[in-house]
Amino acid sequence: MADCGSDIVLFSKIIKLPHLPRLAHFINLVVRQILSSSANVSNISECDESDAEFVFSDVIEIVRQTVKSIRQPNSESKFLELQKVVQNGMQLKLELDNVTRWNSTFKMLERFVKCENSIAAFLSNKEMPWTEIKNLRNLLEPFYFETKELEEDNKRNLYKHFRH
């Protein structure tokens, strides 16, 4: 079993399966802690802090507030119509992250980057820190795929124990 809840710990003892703390959950907690820190994101690829302008939480908050404003009922339909034109007929709703959903910050940034041209056209005059947004998205990507793989492994392992 791979969860930290007391009911899961008890259940794993009853059925005589080893209890393992959920590694994917641990990775997610570490990533969340890093994102809430004051680490900078301006030049991740070169690790040069001298010209850093944004911290992780600043970039996330800029994206979050932009998504919230575009998702307002009177704005979202206009955005989706503009997106049809700018993105050659493709319409993607922007996603908002949620602290209780693993990897939701990566998914929000991923969708935001996919919609970059539409967002830039929609916001016309507003400057967005696209380099920092893409850097942060790239930083989170391996954690996203690793936790997804770990979750799948946990499901397969659990299935092996119960299929007979």
Describe, in plain words, how this protein is organized in 3D:
There is one protein chain. Helix content is 63%, strand content 0%. It contains 7 helices and no strands. It is globular, with a radius of gyration of 20 Å. The two termini are 17 Å apart.
The chain-level mean pLDDT equals: 78
| Main pleated sheet | none
Give the helix tally.
7
If you compute it from the alpha carbons, what radius of gyration comes out, rounded to the nearest whole angstrom? 20 Å
Helix and strand element order: HHHHHHH
- Determine the fraction of residues in helical runs and give it as a percent range: 55-70%
Instruction: Please state the structural category.
Output: mainly alpha
Form type: globular
The fraction of residues assigned to DSSP E strands is: under 5%
Regions with little confidence, pLDDT below 50 for 5+ residues = 43-52
| Oligomeric grouping of the chains | single chain
Distance between the termini: 17 Å
Strand segment count: 0
Produce the secondary structure layout.
Layout (H helix, E strand, L loop, with lengths): L5 H9 L8 H14 L19 H15 L2 H14 L17 H11 L1 H8 L6 H33 L2
In short:
The chain contains 7 helices and no strands. The protein is mainly alpha-helical and 164 residues long. Residues 43-52 have low confidence and may be disordered.
What characteristics describe this protein?
7 helices, 164 residues, mainly alpha
